[in-house]
């Protein structure tokens, strides 16, 4: 194959692919450079509105240009424009980089020195503004004072421990024994003194009378007698007190015993009249209570009888219903198919 023929075939293929590319819309074939739309950051309200209006106008203009036949640009034209623009920008960047490298190589040392000097000055200004030196000095003094205080406490603690240990080691064993004996002797003397004092003290909790009665501070609780028994005793006591021979002695003895009992907090039931009234009152109370109890029992019995009656009625009703169901079932079995139905006598009769 000759070179001329090869070039012609390549040219034909190129034209074919160019036509294929022209058939594809530019927005699907050429990738757009997505630029960050940062126009709304840091803008005022009027500036944002102006930017939006400009964007709308640009979109309208692009649409008109796209529909105008004179300004129509195919996909190949757009590709060619982009390639030319990119080549121009690359050439400018290469020129700028060459010039910049020369300048940087000449002024790099001075630039670093200036930056370092500016940084140092800025740091000094900030330190002076917040009083960093004074704060550091104060913190250093506080730290030194704290360390010195800890050292002093440690020295004083060691000194006190040493003194205590020396005191315990130098004290002889005999001194310990003497102190223990003195302590024990003092305790014995105190015990003997307390015992002697107790022997010489009086006991006021127990009082003995000449009549044979004894009242103790800790008296035993006796079971309370019934009012009937107390009435019998009071009546008998009244009869003894009315005796002409020994009545006065009995009255005096009873008076003393009653006074002592009342002084110890006990109640004395020696009045027959009051006891009779109390017995009568308790009797009436018992009668009333028994009457109420009888009424309550009668009410309970009536409720029980009513419930039993209801139960018996329910049982009887269920039995009747069961019997009726059985009879209906039996009659249903006796019915014959046909128009005459069930007959009690024979059919031919």
What does this structure look like?
A hairpin with a 5-residue loop joins strand 1 and strand 2. It is elongated, with a radius of gyration of 66 Å. It contains nine helices and two strands, in the order H-H-H-H-H-H-E-E-H-H-H. The protein is mostly helical and 349 residues long. It is found in: Nucleus. Pfam families: RRP14, SURF6. Belongs to the SURF6 family.
N-end to C-end Cα span:
134 Å
Q: How many helices in DSSP terms?
A: 9
Structural class: mainly alpha
Radius of gyration: 66 Å
What is the succession of H and E elements? HHHHHHEEHHH
Please state the average pLDDT score.
76
Q: Largest sheet, described in full?
A: 2 strands, antiparallel
Q: Rough shape?
A: elongated
Oligomer: single chain
Q: Kindly estimate the percentage of residues that lie in beta strands according to DSSP.
A: under 5%
Determine the fraction of residues in helical runs and give it as a percent range. over 70%
Count the beta strands: 2
Q: Which strand order does the major sheet show?
A: 1-2
Q: Report the uncertain regions.
A: 204-217
Write the layout of secondary structure elements.
Elements (H helix, E strand, L loop, with lengths): L2 H21 L2 H4 L15 H23 L7 H55 L2 H39 L2 H28 L5 E3 L5 E3 L10 H15 L5 H17 L8 H63 L15
Antiparallel strand pairs: 1-2
């Amino acid at each position: 194959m000759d070179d001329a023929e090869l070039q012609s075939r390549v040219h034909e293929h190129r034209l074919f692919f160019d036509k294929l590319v022209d058939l594809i819309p530019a927005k699907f074939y050429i990738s757009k450079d997505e630029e960050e739309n940062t126009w709304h950051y840091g803008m005022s309200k009027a500036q944002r509105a102006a930017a939006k209006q400009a964007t709308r106008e640009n979109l309208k203009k692009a649409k008109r240009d796209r529909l105008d036949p004179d300004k129509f640009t195919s996909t190949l034209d757009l590709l060619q424009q982009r390639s030319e623009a990119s080549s121009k920008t690359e050439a400018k960047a290469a020129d700028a980089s060459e010039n910049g490298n020369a300048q940087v190589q000449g002024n790099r040392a001075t630039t670093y020195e200036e930056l370092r000097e500016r940084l140092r000055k800025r740091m000094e200004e900030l330190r002076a503004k917040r009083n960093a030196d004074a704060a550091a000095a104060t913190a250093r003094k506080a730290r030194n004072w704290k360390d010195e205080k800890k050292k002093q406490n440690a020295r004083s603690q060691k000194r006190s421990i040493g003194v205590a240990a020396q005191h315990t080691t130098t004290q002889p064993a005999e001194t310990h024994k003497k102190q223990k004996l003195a302590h024990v002797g003092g305790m014995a003397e105190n015990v003997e003194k307390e015992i002697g004092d107790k022997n010489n003290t009086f006991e006021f909790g127990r009082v003995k009378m000449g009549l044979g009665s004894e009242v103790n501070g800790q008296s035993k609780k006796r079971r309370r007698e019934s009012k009937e028994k107390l009435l019998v005793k009071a009546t008998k006591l009244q009869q003894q007190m009315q005796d002409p021979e020994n009545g006065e002695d009995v009255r005096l003895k009873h008076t003393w015993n009653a006074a002592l009992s009342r002084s110890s907090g006990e109640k004395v039931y020696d009045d027959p009249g009051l006891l009779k009234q109390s017995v009568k009152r308790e009797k009436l109370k018992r009668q009333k209570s028994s009457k109420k109890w009888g009424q309550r029992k009668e009410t309970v019995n009536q409720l029980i009888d009513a419930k039993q009656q209801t139960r018996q009625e329910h049982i009887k009703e269920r039995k009747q219903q069961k019997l009726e169901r059985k009879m209906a079932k039996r009659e249903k079995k006796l019915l014959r198919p046909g128009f005459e139905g069930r007959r009690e006598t024979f059919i031919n009769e």
